[in-house]
Amino acid sequence: MKKLFTGRVKLILGIALCLAIILAVAGVISRGATVGEQAMGALLSPFRSAAAAVTRQVERLYDYLFRYDALEAEYEALQQRVAELEASIRDAQLYERENQRLTELLNLQEDHPDFSFLAAYVTSWDASNWKSACTISKGSGAGVEVGMCAVTEYGQVVGLVTEVGPGWATITTVLDPSMEISASITSSGYTGVVQGSYEKDGTMRMSYLSTDATLMNNDQVVTTGSTLYPRDLIIGYIRDAGLDETGVGKYAVLTPAADFDDLEQVFLIADYTT
Fold first, then answer.
1. CA gap 262, 237 in Å, rounded
2. Integer CA distances (angstroms), 174 to 107, 119, 192, in order
3. Beta partners for 221?
4. Residue 186 in 3-state DSSP?
5. What does the alpha-carbon distance between residue 203 and residue 173 come to, in Å, rounded to a whole number?
């Protein structure tokens, strides 16, 4: 746009300059004008009007160009301001969500006064077919260790720390088939082992249940307690059940309690009483 205007300006200025020279010559001739010179002046009169018109157009064009530059600078400043405001809004929303999580975490802390937590943000997810894991923003430098249990602010089990670096750590989630957690059904007390499903449908399977176990949809399943998982952490909810492959035991299909689709932050249980 600016290059186009610059080319036009050069052309108009060239024309104006030529007309100005002609008019200057005509002005010199017109002083003490003879009849012939007066005739020449009359002949050049239209050119004087044309030169004046061209000069006015050049002035308008220059005013437009200068105004265009000012508007462009103003637009860029506004764009920068909009970007800053959008960043501020995102930060405010992030802080609001974090504040809500910390408020819920205080309730969890009241229920488990022996727990101590390390908070970390989820930075990425492992997208491989047979694994469910995420990377978090803290590592050994912040005290993270392999074997720490990760939960949400509601005490829902996310998984276990399986690898640690200086400023990062990997959490293998409860959806991973390699994870096995001793668990019980809160309504009946029946126990079994929860494992991630190979179906990759976002469910888990609770196996080794007694054949006389009463299983109902939406029954809550929690940890029974171990050296890795504290007792009574929520793993998931029963959504289906059936007889296992042997026909002598039952299994239950579980929906995880933790919402992995919207998981932003996790809390590592750094210490607890077994």
1. 18
2. 23, 19, 15
3. 185, 236
4. coil
5. 12
Amino acid, single-letter form, for residue 34: T
> What is the CB-side half-sphere exposure of residue 27 using CA atoms within 13 A?
7
Q: What is the CA radius of gyration of the chain?
A: 39
CA atoms within 13 Å, Cβ hemisphere of 87: 6
Long-range contacts of residues 177-180, Cβ cutoff 8 Å, at least 24 apart = 177/130, 178/131
Segments of the chain scoring below 70 in pLDDT: 1-55, 58-59, 61-66, 68-69, 127, 129, 274
Nearest to 169 by CA among 128, 136, 132: 136
Nearest in space to 18 (alpha carbons), one of 53, 47, 59: 47
Cα separation, 238 vs 204, in Å, equals: 9
Pairing state between β 116-125 and 250-256:
unpaired
Among 220, 258, 252, residue whose Cα is nearest residue 132: 258
Give the Cα separation of 163 and 172 in Å (integer): 9
Residue range 220-259, pLDDT digits in tens = 999 999 989 999 999 999 999 998 887 778 999 999 999 9
What's the pLDDT score for residue 142? 95
Question: Token pair 């504040």 is at which residue?
Answer: 99
Q: If DSSP codes are grouped into helix, strand and coil, which group holds residue 23?
A: helix
Measured on CA atoms in the order 41, 46, 51, 53, is the torsion positive or negative? positive
d(CA 42, CA 58): 25
Burial of 121 (0-12, 13-18, 19+ CB in 10 A): middle
Contact between 242 and 256 (Cβ < 8 Å) = no
Contact 195, 254 (CB under 8 A): no
Say whether 161 sits in a helix, a strand or coil.
strand
- pLDDT, tens digit (0-9, with 9 covering 90-100), for 96-129: 777 777 777 788 888 888 888 999 999 999 867 6
